[in-house]
TrEMBL record:
Membrane-spanning ranges: 28-45
Species this protein is from: marine metagenome
Keyword Membrane carried by entry: yes
Keyword Membrane: yes
Name of the protein in question: Tetratricopeptide repeat-like domain-containing protein
Keywords annotated in UniProt: Membrane, Transmembrane, Transmembrane helix
Amino acid sequence: MDEDITVINTTTRNEKIKNFFIKNKKKLVILLSLIILLILSYFAYGEFDKRNKIKIANKYNNSIINFISGDKLNVESEMIKIINAKDKTYSPLALYFLLDNNIINSKEKINSLFDILINETKVDKEINNLIIYKKALYNSEFETENNLLKILNPVINSESIWKSHGLYLMAEYFLSKNEKQKSKEFFEKILILENSNPQIKLEAQKRIQRDFSE
């Protein structure tokens, strides 16, 4: 008797499963197709991204080779294309190359390229903070106090590893303007900062002893 009931229950359960699949056949086929499509798209995108990265790397390396060999005509445009590609590795390197070799004279153009890296390129948080610091460093020779602080605020108001560098830059900026009290305040912030860069902290101590000792 019990065996008969078990057989009946099993048969009933199998029939329910069979009926479910028959009833929802189209939905299941669509769902399975979507899953397969997503998997294929994921691997296709990964392959595309990999090939695109290699292409950008080759363009960057070729531009440097051309620059070194004396063929500087297209270096600026090629490096700008790399920056606009918003690659987390080669886009920052391209801008640094333009800066280090004084290829672009326009401050507005340089700052617009910095903004592409800071606001539109997906890089690690600390790399982003480093780029912000480099933008401030570039602007420190000609920008006003308010504008320079506006650039640096995301770094000096955070717990970034580049915070002490930003504070040191502002201290040096105010010292160059002969605003010694403001400069001293920024140097002192470095000394009490827990994660100050050791070398930056040492330089701040030397500065205070040398330039602010009474």
